[in-house]
Write a structure and sequence with these properties.
The complex is a heterotrimer of chains A (about 290), B (about 350) and C (about 260). Chain A has about 290 residues and is mostly helical. Chain A contains 11 helices and no strands. Chain C has a 6-stranded mixed sheet, with helices on both faces. Chain C has a 4-stranded antiparallel sheet with strand order 2-1-4-5, with helices on one face. In chain C, α4 packs parallel to α7 and α5 packs across α7. Chains in contact: A-B, A-C, B-C. Chains A and B meet through α5, α9, α10 and α11 of A and α1, α7, α8, α12 and α13 of B.
Chain lengths: ~290, ~350, ~260
């Protein structure tokens, strides 16, 4: 790794370039719109998401712009309230996986030996299974509920961060400024916190942003399978699932799905642009080698 | 001082064989780990299989509960259950499924080929399209086609598979009536004589064009829905892998030799880019297997995705363990193949 | 057959890299091109073969025996590359493809440019390997680059460059990535090949010691321009330009002794 200890500043310095990319702008705009919707849903939503007082399976039109479902609930309001369920959960989920996975990975990379071995073997075992299948088994075993679904996704998500952090820590550990810190008497923990971790945040940030989309897809997928949110909660995946049996009333499943799609897309746009901005290779600098 | 010689070949097994043996041993170890994990997961968790499988009335009667537990070996200590389980696995006995009341192995034998056919078709399409798009995007870097492909692939990995399945089903079957409905083949025609379990292949082997076309027609929509995510994934990875290689010195050196562009692309660029690409292809297959759980239900595709879901929700423990085992092992086999391919493609790996 | 570069200007992304370079190569003579990093010396070599990075703008003239290389259509430029003008790059660890045997890398452009058959190409390749003094040439043919040491890889790279009997060889920092103990051998080889085959060699390097060992003429570059040109002896002993003097002054005394010749 060619980063210097001022890598923190490097990250901040390069962010402004990222904002100017059109994809990132679109992503940020969409994310902000959804954040506003999530926060202001009680004010913005035309109906109570749980009230079943509208005509059933009414097509989109005035008064119910996204139509109604088979229980007479307004889909637009439910989609808006769904943002309050899905988005905070997903962000928290990713934050937790980053924390847990990152910490475990940092310990594995920094302390090495048996700590490293155990953590990586466990991670390997998790990687041996395709994600949805493992998450499904865990969620089913824990019992169908939104919290358990979150836990299930956590179980499948942390190893990726552990592995990345471990690799980064291994790369930084032998650098001079870390060694000199230890010579100055820093304890292992202090060295880890002050010298190693700040240089590791960049790539992790990119991974986490891209992961928000993946986590949302996984979470709503589990709810779709009935292993996550329970009715009558307006969670988007569960809403799509309830639209399956009335699929000819296309609006019931389409709009919640579009909601998922737009949120995931926004974070993928953002993450992709961040990745390009932080990668020295794709930055438009002329390589010294060529001169 | 004489110049140093290249290292002489060691006697014994050729390096490729040694490499293979090492990988296979590691795979066996991991397979054992999988049996352990599936067993632990399905047993040391709060859900009570008794409650999930017996009705309310039966639950109230301790005799029936005890008998049920004894029948399913749940009254023995855990480690003994595991040993029995392991013995059974090695002999091909995966216990009895509680939903279908058949041996799990029979259930799996019936459902696995359907999923393999679906996942196989999807990975083929994904590889062809994903790699092609990725190469085009890399070669036309920063031009319009690159930007378009980049946005399209980002959209591809953002679409919820289960939602897309429903939309595709609605649009192509219900509204436009282009594709046939659910199931693997037109029920009027029936399945071809089972040789491989892959109905498209079996239909060809039996010379039945009508069944073949029906099977393909039924396969297209679910396969494409499944493939969208992996096409997006492969496009992105191929693009960055190829770009990485294009910046390498040896590509510049090849141009300096005056080799034609096509030769450089095929022999120099793709060969190096293949290594990261097949890594992603292995991961992509894993995500395809995952996706089948979400897609099979909507298209009424009788595969292990559906089976897995039903077993998980009814806490049919033997079935869940069986599925976990099979899926884990299949995924392991794929990754083993990927590792072997590394050894074949990159001489640095096998000539340690 | 000589190569003459006249008023070569290159700019990349609005920044001027070369600002009017004049240079001339003759058969059987090694022309050293010296300068610090950033002086544009590598770019000069790349410009001859049209290998500049994406988005570079070039004006001026690069004439090979009367033909203007900068305006050649792509197909003909490809024939010149490797066939008449060849290049050896700095780091043989990265300029050789790690997954192709060196035999393949020796013969593929041979078969493309000269149209020789497989057997004949192999024979020539083995002969070339012998010429650059790779021991066990027959076996080496089927080996991969990572199985050789750094010095041997560079010799292989030189063999590859000479495979189609080019008239001009551009060597971009050929010894910089090698161990000091190995450098002399590679330089000796270059000098020997130049004399034996009548090659015109452009030796790009920042190391004046290397220059003094093998070059006949020396040009010194600074900021995209050639500031001084002349016979090696004269330039290194009595530099006319202040910059050359400062370069020489920064060297330890023993480096400019008559070396390998």
């Amino acid at each position: 790794m060619k980063r210097d200890p001022l890598a923190r500043k490097g990250l901040l310095r390069r962010l402004p370039e990222a904002w100017r990319q059109p994809l990132a702008v679109v992503g940020v705009v969409i994310a902000i719109v959804w954040l506003v919707v999530a926060v202001a849903a009680p004010v913005l939503a035309p109906h109570d998401p749980l009230a079943q007082d509208l005509p059933r399976l009414a097509a989109p039109g005035p008064g119910h712009w996204f139509g109604t479902d088979q229980l007479g609930r307004d889909i637009l309001s439910r989609v808006m309230y769904g943002a309050r369920v899905s988005i905070p959960l997903t962000v928290m989920l990713v934050a937790l996986s980053v924390l847990i996975g990152g910490l475990l990975g940092a310990c594995a990379g920094y302390f090495g030996k048996w700590v490293d071995e155990t953590i990586m073997r466990v991670a390997d075992l998790v990687f041996a299974f395709p994600t949805v299948i493992l998450a499904m088994v865990v969620a089913a075993a824990l019992g169908a509920s939104l919290t358990n679904a979150v836990l299930a996704v956590l179980v499948v998500a942390w190893p990726a961060y552990a592995r990345v952090t471990r690799g980064l820590v291994l790369g930084v550990r032998e650098r001079e400024f870390v060694l000199s810190g230890r010579l100055l008497g820093f304890s292992a923990w202090r060295s880890l916190r002050v010298d190693v971790l700040p240089n590791v945040t960049g790539p992790i940030l990119v991974l986490a942003t891209l992961d928000i989309g993946t986590a949302l897809l996984l979470l709503s997928g589990l709810s779709f399978l009935g292993l996550g949110a329970k009715p009558p909660s307006p969670e988007w995946g569960a809403m799509v699932s309830s639209g399956v049996e009335v699929f000819d009333s296309w609006w019931v499943a389409t709009f919640p799905g579009l909601a998922i799609l737009t949120v995931v897309l926004a974070f993928n746009f953002l993450g992709d642009t961040l990745r390009d901005a932080l990668d020295p290779r794709t930055a438009r600098a002329i390589k010294e080698r060529a001169l | 001082m004489p110049p140093p010689r290249p290292r002489p070949r060691r006697r014994g097994l050729p390096p490729l064989a040694r490499f293979l043996i090492r990988r296979i041993l590691m795979a066996v170890l991991l397979a054992w780990g999988i049996t352990l994990v599936t067993f632990v997961l399905t047993n040391l968790v709060p859900g009570d299989p008794v409650a999930a499988n017996l009705g309310q009335r039966a639950l109230g009667d301790p005799a029936i509960v005890a008998q049920w537990r004894a029948e399913h070996g749940l009254d023995k200590p855990l480690w003994e259950q595991y040993v029995l389980h392991l013995q059974g696995v090695v002999q091909g006995d995966l216990g009895m499924s509680q939903q279908s009341h058949r041996p799990v192995s029979e259930d799996l034998a019936e459902y696995v080929p359907a999923t393999l056919e679906l996942a196989g078709a999807a990975i083929l399409v994904s590889l062809v399209l994903g790699v092609a798009f990725g190469v085009v995007a890399a070669l036309r870097r920063d031009r319009l086609s690159d930007h378009v492909l980049r946005v399209l692939s980002l959209v591809g990995i953002s679409v919820p598979t289960f939602w897309l399945a429903l939309v595709a089903f609605y649009v192509f079957f219900y509204r436009l009536q282009i594709t046939p409905g659910s199931g693997r083949v037109d029920p009027a025609l029936g399945a071809p004589p089972g040789v491989t379990g892959l109905q498209t292949v079996d239909a060809l082997l039996a010379g039945r064009w009508d069944i073949f076309t029906s099977a393909v027609g039924h396969l297209i929509t679910p396969a494409l829905v499944l493939a969208l995510y992996t096409i997006g994934l492969l496009t992105r990875f191929t693009r960055s892998a190829v770009l990485e290689v294009l910046g390498q010195d040896y590509v510049r050196a090849a141009r300096a030799k005056g080799l034609p562009g096509r030769t450089i692309l095929l022999r120099y660029v793709l060969r190096s880019a293949l290594v990261p690409i097949i890594t992603v292809a292995g991961l992509a297959f894993g995500s395809l297997l995952s996706g089948t759980v979400l897609v099979e239900a909507i298209f009424a595709w009788p595969g292990i995705g559906q089976y897995a879901y039903k077993s998980a929700t009814s806490l049919d423990l033997p079935a869940v363990m069986g599925v976990g085992l099979v899926v884990g092992v299949v995924y392991l086999a794929i990754n083993l193949i990927v590792d072997v391919l590394y050894g074949v493609i990159d001489p640095r790996v096998r000539l340690q | 057959m000589t190569l003459t570069i006249t008023d070569l200007k290159v700019s990349i992304g609005g920044k001027d890299i070369l600002r009017g370079v004049d240079l001339s190569l003759q058969e059987g003579r090694v022309h050293g091109l010296a300068g610090e990093s950033g002086s544009g010396k590598t770019m000069t070599g790349l410009a001859v073969l049209g290998l500049l990075p994406h988005g570079a703008r070039v004006t001026g003239s690069v004439a090979l025996g009367g033909r203007e290389l900068l305006t050649l259509p792509h197909k003909e430029l490809n024939r010149v590359r490797g066939g008449e003008v060849a290049m050896v790059f700095q780091d043989p660890a990265t300029s050789l493809h790690p997954m192709l045997t060196i035999g393949r890398q020796l013969t593929e452009h041979m078969r493309h440019h000269l149209g020789v058959g497989k057997g004949e190409a192999r024979a020539r390749a083995v002969e070339l390997l012998g010429k650059v003094r790779i021991p066990g040439a027959q076996e080496a043919y089927g080996r991969y680059p990572h199985q050789f040491s750094g010095g041997m890889r560079q010799r292989i790279a030189i063999a590859i460059a000479l495979a189609c009997s080019p008239k001009v060889l551009i060597a971009d920092e050929p010894t910089t990535a090698l161990d000091v103990t190995v450098q002399a051998g590679v330089l000796r080889l270059l000098r020997g090949l130049c004399d034996e085959l009548g090659l015109a060699v452009l030796l790009v390097t920042h190391d004046l010691g290397v220059m003094s060992a093998v070059a006949d003429e020396v040009s010194v570059m600074k900021d995209g321009l050639v500031v001084e040109t002349g016979p090696r002896g004269r330039v290194l002993r009595e530099p006319a330009h202040a910059y050359t003097r400062s370069l020489l002054d920064s060297l330890p005394d023993s480096s400019t002794d008559e070396g390998v010749r």
